[in-house]
Each structure stands twice: as C-alpha cells, then as structure tokens.
Amino acid sequence: QVSLVESGGGLVQPGGTLRLSCTASGFAFSRTDMKWVRQAPGKGPERISSITSDGSVTTYLDSVKGRFTTSRDNAKSTMYLQMNNLKPEDTATYYCLRTFGTQRGQGTQVIVFP
C-alpha cells in the first residue's frame, strides 16, 4: 500500500534553515507528481509547493517563493523541501502527498520561534 514518511522537522530560530524529506513507497514514485502541504494549528491545509514526476517543473506558494526549494531523487523515491530564511509564520506540520492524491503521512513538525 501507499506509504509516505516525512522527516527533518524541528525547532529553529527565525532566519534558520531546515531540510525536509519525504520517502515514498507502494506506488510508482518516478512517474508521480508530488506536493508539499502544511497545516498550522487551528488553520486549514495550505499547499506550498509541487513538483512534476521528472522534477523539471516546480511551483510555489507566493509566501515561500525564493525561500523554499522542492526537489526529488527518483532513484531513492524521495522528495525534499529545502527551507531557508524561516519565519514564525512557517510554523506548521508539513506533509507530502501525491499531487492528485489525498493520502498523507504522519507529517513532520516545524516550529520557528524567536
């Protein structure tokens, strides 16, 4: 069955960096478009980035453009989210999903505090 496992979250000060990973199994990862979604406490989910199956096209939420970079390694069935210049408003649980799917993993928590 489909499995998505996010990791790499943590506690960081504003301006800091984190690199999230999403390891996938149970489906043809190399042929699947993927996305990152985050959900802050008390708020709905927010799509922050997407990447095509071959990694050639990425899209970003305006508020993270220039700070976040999504990439993938199809040989490792893994997607990444490099987050630079983190801000308190980036605090959320981050999830990876197939772009056209709804199943997500357990998420990884990112907390940015002054």
Q: What's the quick description here?
A:
The protein is built from no helices and ten strands.
Provide an overview of this structure.
By secondary structure, the chain is mostly beta strands. It contains no helices and 10 strands. The chain has a 6-stranded mixed sheet with strand order 2-10-9-4-5-6, with no helix packed on it. A 4-stranded antiparallel sheet has the order 1-3-8-7, with no helix packed on it. It is globular.
Structural class: mainly beta
Cα-atom radius of gyration: 13 Å
Q: What is the residue-averaged pLDDT?
A: 97
* Helix share bin: under 10%
Report the span from N to C terminus: 40 Å
Q: Which strand order does the major sheet show?
A: 2-10-9-4-5-6
How many helical elements? 0
SSE series? EEEEEEEEEE
* Major beta sheet summary: 6 strands, mixed
Low-confidence stretches are none
Q: Could you say which overall geometry the principal axes of the C-alpha atoms support?
A: globular
Q: Kindly estimate the percentage of residues that lie in beta strands according to DSSP.
A: over 45%
Task: Give the number of DSSP strands.
Answer: 10
